[in-house]
Design a protein that fits this description.
This protein is mostly helical. The protein has 7 helices and 2 strands, in the order ααααββααα. The protein is 72% helix and 2% strand. It has a two-stranded antiparallel sheet. It is elongated, with a radius of gyration of 37 Å.
Length: 205
């Protein structure tokens, strides 16, 4: 083989040094996709989709979680309508039902209507609070029930729905009804608050 052929086959020293330098730079910077030239040495090669997706996936997952949590919470107008309508319906039913008493004999009686109405107000308040994801949503049904009961008891003389007197069991139940409403509302507010706190902790994970 002639000297001319050997010269054309072996690369020049500056070409080897430049190639080694590029490889060292790529290894140091970790740029193996976007900084690499294409086969014709005229434009950068397309970045590896797998590398780009691995970086974007956590951010996209966090955005989707935050968007889902925000969209799952009803609007303020919807929450107001839900709690007010529920409070008026449940408050009316509970006020009518609270005075039912089971008389075992003249001295023994069981106020099952009071227990039933208290549980109904508590359940409706918890449902409103957890459905709307607002603590005040749990208080509205109970407050409306209290207002309705007070109106039935004192806005009209001789009310048959809410009787307040210490002379008869139905009058004692009437006084007790206001206390039961307060207890039901407080329990519903506490449970709703804990539920909302637990949801926020889960969303941060």
């Amino acid at each position: 083989m002639s000297s001319t052929e050997r010269t054309s086959v072996n690369p020049a020293p500056w070409q080897n040094s430049a190639g080694n330098g590029n490889r060292v730079d790529q290894a140091a910077t970790g740029d193996n996709s976007a900084g690499r030239l294409s086969a014709d040495d005229t434009k950068p090669a397309v970045a590896d989709p797998a590398v780009a997706n691995s970086v974007d996936e956590p951010a996209a997952a966090n955005d989707a979680t935050e968007t889902g949590a925000a969209s799952a919470r009803p609007t303020s107008l919807s929450s107001v309508l839900t709690t007010v309508i529920t409070g008026l319906l449940i408050g009316s039913v509970a006020t009518v039902m609270h005075a039912n008493i089971w008389y075992v004999n003249e001295s023994v009686w069981l106020p099952w209507g009071l227990l039933f109405s208290g549980a109904l107000v508590w359940f409706a308040s918890v449902w409103c609070g957890t459905a709307t994801r607002r603590v005040w949503g749990a208080a509205v049904p109970g407050l409306l029930t209290y207002v309705l009961s007070w109106a039935y008891a004192y806005l009209k003389n001789g009310s048959a729905l809410v009787v307040t007197s210490w002379d008869a069991p139905i009058g004692m139940v009437g006084y007790a009804w206001f206390a039961v409403i307060f207890v039901a509302v407080m329990a519903a507010v506490i449970m709703t608050g804990r539920y909302i706190v637990r949801l926020r902790r889960q969303a941060r994970r």
